[in-house]
Amino acid sequence: MGACVSREGIGEEEYGPPQAPSIQANAGPINKGPALRRTMPFTPAIMARAGALRRQRDEDVELECSAPPPGQARERQNRDYGMSIGSWLHRLWQPVNSAARSRTIAVLGMHRSGTSAITRGVAALGVFLGNDFLDAQPENPTGYWEDKGIVDLNERVLGALGLTWDAVAPVDLSLLDSNAARKLRRTAGAYIRRAFCRNALWGFKDPRTMRVLPFWLDVFAACAVDDAYLLVIRNPMSVAKSLFARQQMPLETALQLWLAYGIPFFDRTAGKVTMVVDYDRFMIEPRRELQRIAHGLAIDPSENEVAREIDRFTNEFLDEKLRHTVFSIADVDASTSAGRIARDAYALLFDLACDVRRPDAAFWSQWESLALRYTSNLAGSGEGNEHG
Asked: Are 111 and 260 in contact (CB under 8 A)?
């Protein structure tokens, strides 16, 4: 099928058999007929690309103009998304390199686990993290290194699931098939294409990503992005102590939240390039751990500028004084079901972080058993189903 595009605008389309570009005069006296029309042949591929451009434009508008989450004041500038016909046609006929795929490293991890410091280290390795970060706060004075658009999307996804960041309830995966979730996937795809995918190697960090990981797996697949994962872990007791200091969250709630983030969807990374790094080990030998991360995620840190960034990161950015607690695995409170499962999950992941084992079939078998314990604990509300 072909299409005729008017000189006045893209919106007037007529469909007819393919024909060569020409100037076609309408029948009858010129001064009584409509304006001259220019006809162009459109192949199905071009028409599909035109539709994709329209959708991307509309989704960009939706993301930029969406209301910020409650309690968060954000300044947003008005932007003109009008696209002239010339600009539209220029983009339409741009060659598309279908073989070119960008690569992302999604940094996963529970809140208060040291993800911010380690993500800054990932940036030192040359990974593009965006340029519109959340502001630093007193509880995180060196910055979160979280892209505002990603955080906004994750909060909206959690909202569509009926959850908040500190909810310990399980995710209802059926809600990811809702119209609202599908619309958010399209919006997320448009956002990462615009903000990140022009870079060969990019990434982002937001603890909420771990909670809604199936959502992002679908987005990455739809955008033809090669995805890799860096899971940052920290002793559950350190996380709980930090959450109590920040907002007086009870120990049992904090341990349940640690499980809600860490257990349900980590197995979705099986078969993908994935590294696990422990925050305490990272703080002891940051340069060694950065080299380990680079090797495991196939990042080449050999350039001189990258070497200088690593020096600045290890010598100037990291501050041991910002780490207030250090616990061993044996210190994890095992007096409750949540504590026992958290202890065992952390021990398994710590083995990966120490490279004493690999995420092979035996590991995933143990992880599946752990996930069943977690699910059973949720179903039975805990105490009667677990014995230490």
From this structure: no
